[in-house]
Write a structure and sequence with these properties.
Elements (H helix, E strand, L loop, with lengths): L22 H12 L6 E5 L6 H13 L13 H7 L6 E4 L10 H12 L8 E5 L7 H12 L5 E7 L7 H4 L3 E4 L5 H11 L6 H7 L4 H4 L4 H18 L5 H7 L5 H21 L10 H14 L7 H11 L9 H15 L2
Parallel strand pairs: 1-4, 1-5, 2-3, 3-4
Helix pairs in contact: 4-5, 10-13, 11-15, 12-14, 14-15
The structure holds zinc ion.
Zinc ion (ZN) binds next to helix 3.
Length: about 350
Amino acid sequence: MQDSTHNPVKAQQPNAKSFPWHEKNWKYFTQARTSDHLPHALLLVGEEGIGKYFLAERMAKSLLCIQPVAFEACGNCQSCKTYESGANPDYTKIELAEDKQQISVDQIRKLSEFLTYSRSFNTHRVAIINPIERMNNNAANSLLKSLEEPANNSVIILVASHLGKILPTIKSRCQLISVASPTHNQALDWFKQNHAEVEQAELRLNIAAYKPLKALSITDEDITQRSNFLEDLSNIVNGNLSVVATAKKWEKINLELILNWQITWAQQLIKEAECGSSTSENNNNNETDRLNQIQHALFSQIKPDKHWQLYQQLIKQKQYIHTSVNTLMFIENMLLLWLEAGR
Ligand SMILES: [Zn+2]
């Protein structure tokens, strides 16, 4: 067994240009600039962990650079250098303050003030707000004013993971840019090119639902915990463990996390039934081999005509997760779905 006390992989600053799944968005951005039709506010929306913030930064740097090459920031000019040192006078970013759950109205007021200053040595003034759905109502209302009457040559880039949580009045004043998630192969290639040092890349990506930046924070402990839960599921289906005792054992775990694991397994179950087993080749890794064995044992016990039903029922559980559910009962219900699917 491998050491499970290993720390999470350090999220290094990825090279913004190396996210191939952003290319469509980047093309839109450069074309809008070529035709001089770049909107004053861009709203970047996409799933968590796919590098939206790096796309926002790539755009910001491009707008600020004094001598961009094919719209890409040069990295050498005064503007680029001050950006890298965090002191570019024409750039600001609004984020969640440490220990705060929301972006405050004061932060947005400072932003509005910033946008009215005259430019220093850049052609634009640029602000990034991330994540936009964490603004409180007062902050959102305050931002509306800046969006309605944009300052000359200013661009605000808003970043969000949940479009449904953004006020319609904000959405309607921004150009929406949907950022696609990578395909499994794109995510894996990105990992190999940028984080070749990371062990078990495919497994980490799988746990993180192929969101590469999320996968970087998966710890060895996370991997072991997930295998242990899968093993318990398998033992419930074959009758070696009771639902009640197992639910009690996992009572303290994050419900969304274990539900997402199960949804991924149900998806894999369906995929393997249709396309054959996709478990990765033996890569001489104990934990991966162990996981593959447990997964095979569980999958072989689930009745083929119940695959879809299981998947749909697990998806249905999502709606109860943020309500005041009884944790124990919630886990029991999920476990019973597997037991039922094995009958
Ligand atoms: Zn530059």
